[in-house]
Amino acid sequence: MELRAPKGTADMLPETARAWERLQAAAAALFERYGYEPIYTPLFEHTELFARGIGEATDIVGKEMYTFDDRSGRSITLRPEGTAGVVRAAIEHALVPQGSVAKLYYAGPMFRYERPQKGRMRQFWQIGVELLGAAEPSADAEAVALLVRYFESVGLPRERMRLLVNSMGDERCRPAYRDAVAAHIRANADGLCEECRRRADTNPLRAFDCKNERCQAVMADAPRITDALCDECREHYEAVKRRLDALGIAYEEAPRLVRGLDYYTRTVFEVQAEGLGAQNAIGGGGRYDGLFATLGGARTPGLGFALGFERTLLALQAAGVEPGTSHGVAAYVAAVDESCRAAAFALAMALRDAGVAAELDHRARSLKAQFKHADKLGARVVVVLGPDELAAGQATVRDMETKEERKVALADVPSRVAALIG
Length: 422
Ligand code: AMP
What we know:
The chain is an alpha+beta fold. The protein has two domains: 14-173 and 229-318, BirA Bifunctional Protein, domain 2 (2-Layer Sandwich), CATH 3.30.930.10; 331-421, 3-Layer(aba) Sandwich (Rossmann fold). 38% of the residues lie in helices and 21% in strands. The strands form three sheets. The protein has an eight-stranded mixed β-sheet, with helices on both faces. A five-stranded mixed β-sheet has the order 13-12-14-15-16, with helices on both faces. A three-stranded antiparallel β-sheet has the order 2-4-3. Strand 12 (331-335), helix 12 (341-353) and strand 13 form a beta-alpha-beta unit. Bound molecules: adenosine monophosphate. Residues 81, 112, 114, 119-121, 124, 126, 260, 281-284, 306-308, 310-311 line the site of adenosine monophosphate.
């Protein structure tokens, strides 16, 4: 048996796990200020939800889904993204009655069978929001602003981010645009890879995302969606940009930004960060006014974004920002010899009960080794229990920062430690 996590997955070891929890807590605090509430949906759904919602011709549905039959023979897929599940839940539980708005956020793992590389995993972790029931451009601008504010709130400097925006049109203007791009692909078939040639018939807009340089050169001359928008979509896009301008949020228009999921309509956006190499998109999203109807619900506008934890972490590291690595241990209880271990154990428990993060040695090691351990954990205080102190009902409380020591009655140790750690 190969004793290794499967390719494209990673264990979140304590330091990374702590960073994930910190990024989630920061998201919850910020998103709640914008009126969002948490939602959890299953990690797997019926396959047809993703096939219909994300689109049969997308890379995700075509080749990246973890799909299997469950024991009843029903086809199940591990969720490759969060929006389809949230919208399914919103329809199932009537969370967005006609005329109302629901704001929901989620965090958790997503699964895509992709070729692993830096910042690209098969199981990765996303935090995302969905703003359901709002069609106005102010909703788009608010979501874009929230994504940027989030990255700022966790310490990513604004100058290390690029915000790209585009409009993908809607069911009125996009079909003609798709046809125009398909015609461009066919007319330039010689210069394109086989997959892009095939895309003329399946999903021409995906050719904009091909990494092949020759394809990129051909697609650089393709018609631009911004020249093909209908009046309503153009006005919506202009209004979104005006609102971003009013907020002072700098963005770049990216007429070739199409994003990998079919459900987007009108506004799409992406934040890219420095120092990540090829996989530099740390978060992105867009509007999906047709998704509710596609999934069998009443027509309801919606939009959202998702950001990737791994890439956000890489972006923070590249910017030299520590994503919360400090260890939680505040006090270490050291026993001088075997006769003091039971008392040390009881004292550590008492400290924890008093709300102090405390640790002790479970390996019967020397006092010197215990001090080393305390140092490694970054404990601010070490409480030493020796036979003499114990006989006097006391312990020595040592402040590791000032090196000051004081003998304290056992019952007073928790309050003394709490005072030292502030
Ligand atoms: P998407 O759902 O494709 O719009 O992606 C939203 C965000 O999730 C991206 O900006 C990335 O930060 C992250 N992401 C998407 N796919 C992966 C992956 N395979 N590995 C790691 N992060 C990913």
